[in-house]
């Protein structure tokens, strides 16, 4: 333990926690970042495969790249930003999905999003599924795309929350990995790894942070752990904070899991092109061929499908369940021989991960205002950050960054005020 008394403790070393601690460090505030895992980055996690490719098992896209603060940090860190267009901005592979059908699907999903936008301006806040056209043949695929965006099926998605998300439409990637970028940004911070925080007592003159390695005292604490971890009781507050608990219950983490596969004779496919496993029913994978030109397939599974695949495999790593599902879908489109060309190459089950309990937050119908409640400080001593606290950039790593910096700025303001009084 590098000491047990700090000005500020930041709990959780993902995008938000690293950004908060960095800002505090720049302001010469004595802070400690306490992280449960043996690494920084949280849901930003890059692993290297046997061929040396950096695989992002968590976030991969710098969404809103032209205003995403991580893009500037990547450039300053001499990392490589790839600006080639994302697969969802291009036509899909035509296997099982002819161009005319693709155009019809685009019109149907565009009309659905327009109905959501209109519905979000009215009361009450209801589930996005209410605005599917019952006669539309693309509802299953619209639901699947909804799960990739929000991590939940449309019957669990608040219309108002969905509408509040802001996206500049610019999407970039970091060739060395988004996880590499975020953990690298935290490299020089005072950090305690492998140290889960179990509780925060904010009843006394100073705050007490209880950890697996003992208690730490602080003037202020910034909590950045995922909303689902707080909702599950992974971090207890004394005195209790019922408003916060209600808020996190309204902001569960939806599920999205990525499976990487190696691909033999990859050159048959164009780089960064997408194929849906099925277009006629809900619960299908999206398969991105040759991400960044590499001989790989990056498959994406969301919502109920990802949850079922995680639940259906009792082994510690449920990669096999996802791989079997992917093989069946791809054989259906590309022929039985295709199975011989692919091998599993990496997956993380985010729903089973005790320090995430899901992939990214989305508000339940009727709970869109929970983000603002979660972001409110308590007595100007206990602060909250993390993607779930973001009003317009939730569910993203840049949303995490911005809330982390905002919480740190508030702490700096409070400390300046009390220093001026003293
Ligand atoms: C498969 C997948 C794909 C995604 N794709 C994208 C994408 O393309 N672009 C994008 O912008 N976003 C994407 N996201 C979402 C993005 O990864 C997250 O929104 C972002 O990383 C969240 O950052 P955070 O700091 O809010 O939370 P986290 O990264 O979860 O950080 C919270 C930290 O708290 C720690 N913690 C938890 N409990 C405790 C405890 N008790 N004590 C101490 N520490 C604790 C955790 O270990 C973690 O390090 C994706 C996520 C997943 C899973």
Brief summary:
This protein is α/β, with parallel strands linked by helices. It is built from twelve helices and 20 strands.
Any descriptors?
422 residues; alpha/beta; 8-stranded mixed β-sheet; 5-stranded antiparallel β-sheet; 12 helices; 20 strands; 32% helix; globular; binds flavin-adenine dinucleotide
Shape: globular
Number of helices, where a helix is a run of at least 4 consecutive DSSP H or I residues? 12
Low-confidence stretches: none
**Secondary structure tally: strands:** 20
| Main sheet properties | 8 strands, mixed
Q: Name the helicity range.
A: 25-40%
Mean pLDDT: 97
What ligands are attached or bound here? flavin-adenine dinucleotide
Proportion of strand residues = 15-25%
Structural class given helices, strands, pairing? alpha/beta
- Gyration radius over CA: 22 Å
Distance between the termini: 30 Å
